[in-house]
Design brief:
Strand content: 15-25%
Mean pLDDT: 83
CATH superfamily of one domain: Glycerol-3-phosphate (1)-acyltransferase
Helix content: 25-40%
CATH architecture of one domain: 3-Layer(aba) Sandwich
Radius of gyration: 28 Å
Number of helices: 24
Number of strands: 33
CATH topology of one domain: Glycerol-3-phosphate (1)-acyltransferase
Shape: globular
Low-confidence stretches: 1-17, 133-142, 550-558
Largest sheet: 9 strands, mixed
Distance between the termini: 102 Å
Strand order of the largest sheet: 9-8-17-16-18-19-20-21-22
CATH class of one domain: Alpha Beta
């Protein structure tokens, strides 16, 4: 029989623990029902009893509390030590049994933290490890392999992937480099916590990352309650940022958000009156302030903007106009004259339309846009049939490897891609983007148009991305912080811009083509700034991944692996499969890249057969690019599947041969391109189109042989052809279709005009 004193002490201790747990649950309940509304998906995947290791992404300091608020079982979290010890947090974290840990801990302290977590698992508890312990600053996944391996050493417990969605941008995130010191975007924040199916105890870090990426893609697809169509988001953003700088261009025109909204509403009114019943409206204009306003006006009218490629052949433009049923095309006389485009019925000069807006019109619409409640404006101006899955635009693919296809992108596609980019490069209202990519290019439409106008920061447009001096002056004048271009354009900036021109840049990214490491080195030497790679395709709206150190110091983030195209942006999942069997490959294995997420297109315009060819089961899009993933989730692109040649039974990459030739030349800038033509004996043979080499072909081939390139990969001397310039599309990409056609004519002995 126990002494009465001991019994009373035990009961008191038990009551104290119960009160402590009750206090914790009360605090968590208040959090989940005041500033936040936390929804749960996959709660059935959490075991009701027994140990399990949860692995979650990490976005804000409140992540442990938001997960715990909607789970019946107690969870022990490994959290950053500086957060655990913070005033106002320490008491609650201690009562929850949280375990402090830090990357700066000495080995003994780290071992003690892992032992405490292991003890909890042995006792049958749930323990949560955040996969992004140092990257919550931009919502990505840094290396966590050592922590995971240390936790499960000697244990056999299931691994439960968990994902938090919609937290980015709240006051507890470090969006824009500020923690807490910012106004909340909305109250309450609607957050979703998703739990995936249990992974086996032996699951690798690669498998865990893939499971988290799939949860992220699924979470983005469940945003119907909080996501709204593009015109509504733009309307809200313009009202909130009425007096802030919105956009400018090289003509000297500068507008604030309020002025942009008024201009868009005026074009909307003109379109509604003059073009009744027209679903798709053409835009044949370069990237300027006026072009942005026209696109926004079309969107506010509930119509579909189709930005036409003014650098494409006339036949391609005719096809786009016919397939979209376009009757009205906004254009300008300057553009028609510059590109030698003939006027056609339905063309309307944007300057002529602007002249029809009287001062009275502008004053009336400015007053309405400023004074009428936003909710009333939404109901009055935006057609009720404009939904998230409504068509937002049709972008005709570049046709760099074949005939252009009309890619249909919905409001959900564009918004999901923009929200992923907001996190990936950590945009802030103090940012300013350089907009040199044309809007007929998916990067131009999503990143140069919609990203700034619905994020609340500025953009500066210029019509010719190769006019490096003008671009340098614009970057200096407007303190541009974000540069997104192609390798071809960046070479021009290195040659002609001064270091001071890009002094304000914090993020520089190239896409559309594979970046040679020599370009990144040259950019660093000239501007003392890292040049990163991004990757995307029109069919994914377009961004898939980006390699960037984000807003903060690189040493804290681990967000870059040299030579890769980064990790998938939030909301995107990728996998590598066999091109023949579609069997999923593991890390380090090369295969075809597949992409899944809300950014994936709705299909090709009027081409359901071609849509089925590129869409695999369960919504996976087949990119046609050959790639591989590493253990940390970074993607390396080898080449387009169409840029491989089968020579004597061996698959050889054109890019590998191009890189070997450039190394032999010792040239930093691109001077040649490799393609192939049919060969009766070997199946295919390489052809090299080149500009001035600076040495003879014989000397180049000698250097190539000395480099150890396999003889089968060596182009023959008679298959080198000089051209005045390499064919480039308006988007800055190599025109691979024209390259191949040129090679075929030259090898057939037909003179080619270049």
């Amino acid at each position: 029989m126990r002494p009465v004193g001991v019994h009373n002490f035990s009961a008191t201790d038990h009551n104290s623990m119960s009160l402590s747990r009750l206090l914790v649950r009360l605090c968590l309940w208040l959090l989940a029902h005041t500033f936040y509304r936390v929804a749960v998906c996959g709660a059935e995947n959490l075991p009701m009893r027994g140990p399990a290791l949860l692995i979650s992404n990490h976005i804000t300091f409140l992540d442990p509390f938001l997960i715990a608020a909607r789970t019946r079982r107690s969870i022990r979290f490994l959290i950053p030590r500086r957060f655990y010890e913070a005033w106002g947090i320490h008491g609650l974290a201690k009562r929850m049994g949280a375990i402090p840990v830090s990357a700066t801990d000495d080995p003994q302290a780290m071992a003690q933290a892992l032992e405490a977590a292991q003890a909890g698992l042995r006792a049958g508890e749930l323990v949560c490890l955040f996969a992004e312990s140092s990257r919550m600053r931009i919502g990505d996944l840094p290396r966590f392999k050592s922590s995971l391996e240390g936790l499960r050493r000697g244990l056999t417990v299931p691994i439960i992937p968990a994902h938090l969605d919609r937290e980015w941008g709240d006051i507890f995130s470090v969006e824009g480099g500020r923690f807490f010191l910012k106004w909340p975007r909305r109250i309450p924040y609607r957050v979703t916590v998703s739990f995936g199916a249990a992974l086996p105890p032996s699951a690798s870090t690669y498998q865990v990352r893939q499971a988290l990426a799939l949860l992220s893609a699924a979470a983005f697809s469940r945003r119907d309650r909080v996501q709204r169509p593009l015109p509504e988001v733009f309307l809200d953003c313009a009202r909130r940022n009425w007096r802030r700088f919105a956009m400018a261009d090289s003509s000297g025109r500068e507008l604030k958000f309020g002025q942009v909204l008024v201009g868009a509403l005026l074009f909307r009114r003109w379109l509604v009156k003059r073009c009744p019943g027209e679903k798709m409206v053409g835009v044949l204009l370069p990237p300027t302030v006026g072009t942005a306003i026209v696109n926004l006006g079309i969107c506010l009218a509930g119509r579909v903007a189709v930005n036409l490629n003014y650098t494409a052949p006339e036949q391609a433009m005719d096809t786009a106009i016919e397939r979209c049923g376009i009757k009205t095309i906004f254009t300008s006389e300057k553009l028609l004259e510059r590109f030698g485009i003939a006027r056609r019925p339905g063309m309307v000069g944007v300057e002529e339309v602007a002249q029809t807006f009287s001062k009275g019109d502008k004053l009336v619409w400015a007053a309405l846009a400023r004074l009428v409640p936003t909710a009333c404006l939404r109901r009055w101006l935006i057609p009720s049939d404009v939904k998230l899955d409504s068509l937002a635009t049709v972008v005709f693919s570049s046709g760099s490897t074949g005939a252009p296809k009309g890619v249909m992108l919905s409001h959900r596609n564009i918004l999901s891609n923009v929200e992923g980019m907001q996190q990936a490069i950590n945009v802030d209202r103090r940012d300013c983007l350089l907009g040199v990519l044309p809007f007929f290019h998916a990067f131009g439409f999503t990143v140069a148009l919609w990203l700034p106008v619905i994020s609340g920061f500025g953009v500066v447009y210029h019509t010719n991305p190769l006019e490096a001096r003008t671009i340098g002056d614009l970057c200096r004048k407007y303190a541009v912080t974000i540069l997104i271009a192609t390798p071809t354009f960046v070479w021009e900036y290195i040659r002609r811009c001064e270091r001071e021109d890009f002094a304000s840049l914090r993020v520089a990214i190239v896409g559309a083509e594979k970046m040679r490491l020599e370009l990144a080195d040259a950019f660093w030497e000239k501007f003392h700034l890292d040049l990163f790679q991004g990757y995307g395709v029109t069919e994914t709206s377009p961004v898939v991944s980006v390699e960037t150190a984000g807003h903060f110091a690189q040493e804290h983030l681990g967000a870059t692996h040299r030579g890769t195209i980064g990790r998938p942006i939030p909301g995107i999942a990728v996998r590598i499969v066999s091109p023949e069997t579609f069997q999923t490959f593991g890390p380090g294995q090369q295969g075809v890249l597949l992409v899944k997420g809300s950014s994936v297109m709705t299909g090709y315009l009027d081409e359901p057969g071609k849509t089925r060819q590129v869409m695999w089961e369960d919504g996976w899009y087949i990119t046609g690019d050959v790639a591989q993933l590493d253990d940390d989730g970074f993607i390396t692109i080898t080449d387009r599947l169409s840029r491989f040649s089968k020579i004597a039974g061996e698959m050889v990459s054109h890019v590998h041969v191009e890189e070997a030739l450039h190394r032999a030349l010792g040239s930093l800038e691109p001077r040649l391109v490799v393609t192939s033509v049919s060969d009766d004996q070997k199946g295919e043979r390489f052809v090299v189109l080149h500009t001035e080499l600076g040495m003879g072909v014989d000397e180049l081939l000698k250097r190539l042989r000395d480099s150890g390139l396999p003889p089968l990969w060596m182009p023959r001397r008679e298959h080198f052809f000089a051209v005045r310039s390499l064919p480039i599309l308006g988007s800055g990409k190599l025109d691979l279709k024209l390259v191949k056609e040129t090679a075929q004519r030259l090898t057939a002995g037909v003179a080619v005009e270049n």
